[in-house]
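Sequence only, no structure available. Ideas?
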Amino acid sequence: MRREDASATLDPRQAEVASAGLKAMIPDALGRPFLDHVISSLADGGVTRVVLVVAPVAGQIRDHYRTNPTRRVQLDFVVQAEAIGTANALLAAESLVANESFLVLNADNLYPVAAIRALVTLGEPGLIAFERDGLVQLGNFDLDRLASFAILKVGQSGMLEELIEKPDPATMRRADSGLVSMNLWRFDARIFDCCRDVPISSRGEYELPQAVMLGVQRGIGFRTVRMHTGVLDLSSRGDIAKVTARLSAATPLP
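Reply:
I predicted one. Tokens follow.
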């Protein structure tokens, strides 16, 4: 998000927030941060409490919700001391989650309410298995971009068997199911030990997908919920104009 992109259309406020790398706080056309839309979708899907895992310096996010408190969810913050991966980030929230089941998602993705509700009511650990065609037709992805996301190998019973991140072409042909993980999960407390035990990755991080696969090896079942739907992804400056246009008629109520 910090990388300059001369082809991207941003207003001055969007450019300022993008330069700070605060993807979740990119404002829409009316000045509402993307995160308002994310939290609103969670509330629409039946979530009543949201925990934001933030960096030690997250003044803009905290200031926004201090001035504009959420009305439909209880909002809490926890700090990830170092940016050393998503599994480590999840561990930062362990004390607040206790023994409850919970959802985990990216703050720079806007997921459909139906996908959130499906996990809220699932009753067991699982994830949304997004159909690739749906992401292209209904989200802001093209096929080339989706090649950088994890593909899913799913058993006949609907349980996750393997999550393959950034597969090479040969692996893609061998294992491709047409199903993609967009990091929308339901977990129970067993995931925390997997996050503690997962080895550091080649990128020097403790990563949640690897923790999930460790859980599969230990016998934790993750049910997949297949969906033909879109996701709005706000990863780079080139996404901002398209996402802003798609949210122009939306009224978030976080």
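The mean pLDDT is 93.
Hope that gets you unstuck.
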